[in-house]
Specification:
By secondary structure, the chain is α/β, with parallel strands linked by helices. The protein has 2 domains: about 270 residues, no CATH class; about 280 residues, Alpha-Beta Barrel (TIM Barrel). It contains 20 helices and 25 strands. Helix 13 packs across helix 14 and helix 19 packs across helix 20.
Length: about 600
C-alpha cells in the first residue's frame, strides 16, 4: 500500500511539472512520464509478400513499423496527459524478458493484455489517439541493411518524422487498403517528399534535443522518434548535418548510421553531440518511463585500502571494448555465453566498458542487473557517456565551454551510478585537442580514479602512453592509453591473438625490469574478435575467454589486476605522497 501511495504521489507531481522540467538536470535522453498500464503487441504479424517478390518478415517488416508507431503514439499520449497506457513490443530476446519483469515491478503497472497491431489500431482510434496514417514505401533497394544504397527509398524516415507531429501511424503502401478498412484516413503521403524537404518544412515543430539516424528498412527505435517528435534521417549527406546543427548540444543521436564508423561518429562529435548505438533497441519509450524518480543500484568500486601494495610485480589489465553500445547492453550482452554469461567471467580481474549513464536513463533494470551481478574483481567503465571523439567535440560550433557542459553532465550520472573510470575513443590520443579534453574531463568529472583512452584504429595507437592531468582538487590522475589489442587477424605490431599478446607483454615486462621499472599497461579485448583455444581448437570464444588464455601465458612476475587497481598503482608510482593521503581518507 505504501509503495502504491508513493507512486500515486509521484504521478501527481509529474502532472504538475512541465514535461521539460526534470528532477535530474543532467539528463540527456528524452523524458517519458510513466503510465498506469501496459499492453503488449507483436513486433510483426503474418508474413507479407512485397511487390518485388521478397518476403518482408521478421524484424524488418511493415507490420513492425506499424507496431512501432503505435508504441510511439501511446507514449506521446501519456506525456500529453491524454492516456494512461503504453505499449510493449514483444520479442523472444531473453534479456528483454528480464527488463519487462523489472519494469512491471518498478512502475507497478497494470497489464491489460495482448493485442495484434490492427486490434490496437482500433483500440487507439476509438480513444482519439490516432488522427490517421502517413503513407510510405518500404525500401527495396539492392544492398545490405545499415549500408548506404544508391537507390535507397527514404520515405519511411520522412513518414516517421511526420507521424509524431500528426499523431499518425506508419502505413506501408501494401497495407493501405487494410488501414482504410479500419477506418483510418491518410493525413500525409511521405512518398512525395525528400528528407531535406521534410526537415525544411517541419523543423520549427521538431524536438531540438535529439534525433534518430536509422536505415529506412529498420523499424526499431521509431517509437522513440514518434513519442518525442524527433527528426529521422540516414546517411552523412543533407539534411543530416543540418539537423545536427539545429540540435541543442550536447544531444544524444539515437540509432546508428551508415558508412565508416569514424565518419558517421565524427559528424555528431563535431556538433557537440554523441552516438548512442541504439539502432536495434526495442521498447525504449516504456523502459525509460519514470527513470528520473528511480535510484538505480550502484556499481561497486575498488577499495584502494585492500590493494596489496607490497606486491612488486608488473601489473597489466584487460578491458573489453564496445560497451558504449546501448542496443547490445539491452539485447544479448548479459545473456550471451561469450560475454557477461561467459564461464570465464570472474576467472581473472577484468574491465568491462559499459554505458551506465545511458542505462540509468533508458533502462535502469539493466543497470541494476549489471551492478547486482558484477564480479568481485571486475571494473565497470563508463565508456564516453555516449560514443564521441573528444578531440573533435564541438569543432563545428564556436563554444569553448561545450565540452565542459558535457563533462558536467557525465559527472552527474557517474555520481549516480558509482562508476569511477571514464573511457573514450579519440581520433588521435596525442593531439592538442585530445590533451585539452583530458584536462576538461579531469577538472569537471568528480571522483575519477583515472581514465582510459583508445585511439580509433588501431586501438593501441597510444602505445600505452600515460598523460597526467589535474582534477578539481589539483591532484594529478592518469589517462592511460591502450598498449596492446587482442584482435583477430590484426596486421599491426601490437595487435594479435592471445599467444602473441602474451609474448609482447612478457617482453615489455622484461625490458621494464632491465631498467629497474615496473610495467603498468592495459590490453583492449576486441568485443567482436573470436579466437580458438590453443589447447582445444574446437573451442572458439570472444569476450573474457581470450583474455584468460592470454593471462595463462604470462610470466610469474606479471600480475593481472583490475583496471581500477591498475590506475591506483599508476597513481602510487607517480605521486606516492598524495596517493597515500587519499587512500587514508578514502570513504566507501
Amino acid at each position: 500500500m505504501l509503495r502504491a501511495f508513493i507512486r500515486k504521489s509521484l504521478l501527481l507531481v509529474l502532472t504538475l511539472v512541465p514535461l521539460g522540467a526534470s528532477a535530474a538536470p543532467v539528463r540527456w535522453w528524452p523524458r517519458q512520464r510513466p503510465p498506469k498500464a501496459l499492453v503488449r503487441v507483436p513486433g510483426w504479424g503474418p508474413k507479407a509478400e512485397s511487390p518485388a517478390g521478397t518476403l518482408v518478415t521478421g524484424s524488418l517488416g511493415a507490420t513492425h513499423m506499424l507496431a512501432q508507431s503505435l508504441a510511439g503514439l501511446a507514449a506521446q499520449a501519456v506525456n500529453e496527459g491524454q492516456s494512461d497506457e503504453m505499449v510493449w513490443i514483444e520479442t523472444d530476446n531473453p534479456s528483454y524478458r528480464l527488463w519487462y519483469a523489472g519494469l512491471i515491478e518498478r512502475l507497478e503497472l497494470e497489464q491489460r493484455g495482448s493485442f495484434d497491431p490492427w486490434q490496437l489500431v482500433d483500440r487507439y482510434r476509438k480513444k482519439g489517439l490516432i488522427a490517421g496514417y502517413v503513407l510510405y514505401r518500404y525500401d527495396r533497394s539492392a544492398g545490405r541493411v545499415n549500408d548506404w544504397r544508391p537507390e535507397i527509398d527514404m520515405s519511411a524516415n520522412v513518414a516517421t518524422t511526420v507521424a509524431g507531429l500528426r499523431r499518425a501511424v506508419l502505413i506501408e503502401e501494401q497495407l493501405e487498403a487494410t488501414a482504410k478498412k479500419h477506418g483510418l484516413k491518410m493525413v500525409f503521403d511521405a512518398r512525395t517528399m525528400t528528407p531535406s524537404e521534410c526537415f525544411e518544412t517541419f523543423k520549427d515543430h521538431l524536438n531540438h534535443t535529439t534525433m534518430l539516424t536509422q536505415d529506412p528498412r529498420v523499424p526499431h527505435n521509431r517509437a522513440m522518434a514518434i513519442a518525442h517528435k524527433c527528426a529521422v534521417a540516414y546517411g552523412t549527406q543533407a539534411p543530416v548535418a543540418e539537423i545536427m546543427a539545429s540540435l541543442e548540444s550536447p544531444a544524444p543521436i539515437m540509432g546508428w548510421n551508415c558508412g565508416g564508423e569514424d565518419e558517421h561518429t565524427a559528424l555528431p562529435s563535431r556538433f557537440g553531440h554523441f552516438q548512442t548505438a541504439s539502432n536495434w533497441a526495442l521498447n525504449l519509450p516504456i523502459l525509460s518511463a519514470g527513470t528520473d524518480e528511480y535510484e538505480p543500484a550502484k556499481i561497486k568500486a575498488l577499495d584502494p585500502r585492500n590493494i596489496d601494495w607490497d606486491d612488486g610485480r608488473h601489473a597489466v589489465s584487460f578491458i573489453l571494448s564496445d560497451g558504449d553500445n546501448v542496443q547490445w547492453m539491452l539485447g544479448n550482452f548479459f545473456t550471451n555465453p561469450a560475454y557477461w554469461s561467459s564461464s570465464y567471467r570472474g576467472a581473472i580481474p577484468f574491465g568491462w566498458t559499459s554505458c551506465p549513464a545511458h542505462l540509468s536513463q533508458v533502462c535502469p533494470e539493466a543497470l541494476d542487473y549489471l551492478a547486482r551481478t558484477q564480479p568481485a574483481h571486475g571494473s565497470i567503465i563508463e565508456y564516453g557517456g555516449g560514443y564521441h571523439y573528444p578531440d573533435l567535440f564541438g569543432a563545428a560550433r564556436d563554444d569553448p565551454k561545450l565540452l565542459e557542459k558535457f563533462a558536467r553532465r557525465v559527472s552527474g550520472h557517474m555520481q549516480r551510478t558509482g562508476a569511477r573510470i571514464f573511457g573514450f575513443i579519440c581520433m588521435d590520443v596525442d593531439s592538442p585537442t585530445a590533451r585539452h579534453a583530458y584536462k576538461v574531463y579531469a577538472a569537471h568529472i568528480e571522483g575519477l580514479v583515472g581514465m582510459i583512452a583508445v585511439q580509433y584504429y588501431p586501438y593501441d595507437g597510444g602505445d600505452g602512453e600515460v598523460f597526467w592531468v589535474r582534477n578539481s582538487r589539483g591532484i594529478e590522475i592518469p589517462v592511460a592509453t591502450c598498449k596492446f589489442s587482442l584482435w583477430r587477424d590484426a596486421h599491426w605490431r601490437r595487435g594479435g591473438d592471445p599467444a602473441k599478446i602474451a609474448r609482447l607483454i612478457n617482453e615489455s615486462a622484461a625490458r621494464a625490469q632491465a631498467r629497474n621499472e615496473r610495467l603498468h599497461c592495459w590490453t583492449v579485448v576486441h568485443a567482436w574478435s573470436r579466437f580458438e583455444r590453443a589447447s582445444d581448437p574446437t573451442e572458439s570464444q570472444a569476450g573474457p575467454a581470450p583474455a584468460v588464455w592470454c593471462a595463462q601465458r604470462l610470466e610469474k612476475n606479471v600480475a593481472v589486476v583490475s583496471p581500477e587497481e591498475l590506475l591506483w598503482r599508476m597513481r602510487m608510482e607517480h605521486d606516492p605522497e598524495a596517493t597515500k593521503t587519499i587512500i587514508t581518507q578514502y570513504k566507501d
